[in-house]
Amino acid sequence: MKYVITGSVGHISKPLVENLVKAGHDVTVISSKNNNRSVIEQLGAKAIIGSVEDVDFLKQAFSNADAVYTMVPPNFGAANWKEWIGSIGNNYASAIAATGIQHIVNLSSVGAHLPEGCGPVSGLYFAEQALNKLAGVHVKHLRPGFFYHNFLANIGMIQHMNLIGGNYGDASTNMVLVNPADIAAVAAEELLNLQFTGKSVRYIASDERTTGDIAQILGTAIGKPDLPWINFSDEDTLKGMLQAGLPEEIAKNYTEMGIALRNGSMTEDYYKNKPVLSNTKLESFANVFAQAYHQSINH
Hints:
With 299 residues, this protein is α/β, with parallel strands linked by helices.
């Protein structure tokens, strides 16, 4: 089988490529950076360098593929982030329609059932819709929870303020969490089997924990077992991200996503279609978190 994988050598795409290559398949990886070429080739895959904003490039990259894994890369320079995310979905759809590919595994997110109010994830709603309009193409949308690795962004906050928090709610707020390698395993399973038909959604989660649990588990791993979870106001959340150097468009979208986590709208469809949780619990990531935390201190 010939697979094309977007997402370069990120937390999901890299283990996904490793799984497909190990199974003996022909794998091509799209990356926007030429310096990733050697890394991709070392994985046993072919590299093709270009931008997902270029439909003609995507048509060339997708030609002769049996199936494609699509994901929208981050773009912190977008003037309208949701609109840009949706536009990449449209680009993928145009290239898929032109090349006759019949199976797509698309990375989306918990919350992508909402066309508005969910920050960048609402952009993924429109990317899903673009793919759903493709006639005769089978699409499996993967909707994972909140990535464990996102907590690495809180290291500076913990070091300087001795707390962890966000505008997700108080310490009793439940969060749906996922290990990126678990997403890669599900994507590989779907691509290797290609048994899905029509347009369908699959939720992926590794653990469900309250924000208080998260603070306690990550805090214990770094020698701060009493680390508190603090619920920040939306105003303070936005201000903090702007002070940290995030563009206003990005900061506003992340603040909006926090509101959707807090009020439960982001996870409402997840709980109606809850998956079996994987065995990769938050405690396993806590070791990775502690290593990154201590390396940060030592630098």
